[in-house]
Amino acid sequence: KGLQVLEAPEQRRPRAPWFERHVQPCVAELLGSALFIFIGCASVIESAEGAGRLAPALAHGLALALNIAVLGAI
């Protein structure tokens, strides 16, 4: 005789709170953009004459990497 397969009742995941769904991503985007723009602008202002395009490019790249590392999980 065949075996009967028992089906587990459907379990619905609870919805995340309103703060985690709406506010937290917006705040993370705001902080990430502000940090990226602030570091980029500061690196251009404080750039030495001989640095050329390298210093602002490195500053933007490091700011982007920092944003991804810190805020990427959100």
Automatic annotation (TrEMBL):
Localization per record: Membrane
One of the Pfam families matching this protein, by short name: MIP
Coiled coil start-end: none
Record's bilayer topology term: Multi-pass membrane protein
Record-level GO cellular component terms: membrane
UniProt keyword annotation of Transport present: no
Record InterPro entries: Aquaporin-like, Aquaporin_8, MIP
Transmembrane segments: none
Signal peptide: none
Keyword Glycoprotein annotated: no
Keyword terms: Membrane, Transmembrane, Transmembrane helix
Molecular function GO terms recorded: channel activity
Listed name of the protein: AQP8 protein
Organism whose genome encodes this protein: Nothoprocta pentlandii
Designated gene of the protein: Aqp8
